[in-house]
Amino acid sequence: MIKLPEDFITEIKDVLGGDAEKYLALSDSEPFKGISINRLKAEPEKLPALLGFDTEKSPFYADGCYIKGDVQGIGKHPLHHAGAFYVQEPSASSAVTLLDVHPGEKILDLCAAPGGKSAQIASCLRGRGMLWSNEVVKNRAQILLSNYERMGIANGVVSSCYPEILCEKLSGFFDKVLVDAPCSGEGMFRKNPEAAAEWSREHVISCAERQLAILDSASQAVKDGGTLVYSTCTFSHEENEGVITAFLEKHKDFEHCEAAEKFGRKTGVSCGIRITPLEGGEGHFAAKLRKKGSSYPTLRTSQKENNDKTLISVRTELSNIFTELPAGKLTVINGKAYIIPSEMPEINGAGVIRAGVFAGELKKNRFEPAHALFMASKPENIKRVLDLSLNDSRIQEYLSGCEIDCETDSGYTAVAVEGIVTGFGKCSVGRLKNKYPKGLRTL
Ligand code: SAM
User: Fold this and answer.
1) Pocket test for ligand 1, best of 61, 136, 216, 217 (most atoms within 8 A of CB)
2) Which of 85, 135, 175, 259 could make an S-S bridge to 35, C-beta 3.0–4.6 Å?
3) What distance lies between CA 438 and its chain's CA centroid?
4) What pLDDT does residue 443 have?
5) Taking the CB of residue 411, how many other CB atoms lie within 10 A of it?
6) Claim: this prediction has a pTM higher than 0.90
């Protein structure tokens, strides 16, 4: 049984009023679980039928579903390896719905690891425009990068930078900015009862101070007329309405956007929604603000194409494997090839870990394509594809690192499951040498 701190019970009574008792009565029941479908790799109309477990559409995001029943080992599902979906608590998907992403926009996800909301944004962008995902904690930024690769995101940048430095460098660059702030995590108590044991009023207050500072920084990166969405997975007034009110007090160039969503409950600010277990999610707050005015970004983007000998040979090697590459500028840096988004601004010192897709590496006199490039490519853009059905035993063998039988011509070959690329190998006389990265293999 979860032991909720007395001060938290007082707080939740203040936040939920007459509904607090109903909330408290649910504190020991099973948490909601969900997935968000990745349109870069899968079709939301078809995927649920392939999963082998029951799902139900969630009200919080167009491509979000509840997982029904007790499903174990979902991270080992071949379609999870393939990046067809991201496991995400259903109410956590609501902030991206408020962000209202359209293909072609430039979006900043300022507190992005492990990457659930970035995965949603990339899916909504459909490969057009640009996503910049930042995570200040270095090792969490690596997890973010690995999720980027799994989801096949090509038009993105991953960085690890302090928000105040990054947002100053990218001042006015983004159409929309998401701040999914670190918080006291009151919406995590059913999933992670230790979070309840660690909760304190002092922590709530210190989180609110940090959240306001992050939001202050974020405001710079939004272009005039752009959108800023703030979200947390906590209930307290201090970390939610309090932060929004203090921010608007200080930033007269921002205004509320009325929350028009049909989910969640009303909050103390007209631009916000709050979701609790009573509305079908573990707990989220999201609020949408608009920067007044209208203007155009001033940062220069890098358009230079260099065509030295190395680049020409990399291009030739890639054309033996792919019929079409993700959009962007092919660049070779120290023998490593990348396809960099054409919207990438020319800036230094922003802690960029990856811009675009890692395409491969020159090793002695040969070129080895990268796993990330296969993940970001559709089967129809790859010359050789071994497409396996979910009940073909070779898919589990491949994901565990084994060599498998292969019917394609010899050469680098994508491995797909139900038409979704999950990695590659090198085919030679009917056998596929496994190139699935060691760190991703199932045991
Ligand atoms: N948006 C993520 C997702 O959907 O997967 C979850 C983000 S989590 C709620 C907040 C993130 O903010 C954490 O990864 C944390 O490391 C990061 N963070 C912690 N302190 C921070 C700070 N001072 N500035 C910016 N981000 C911070």
Assistant:
1) 136
2) 85
3) 23
4) 81
5) 12
6) yes
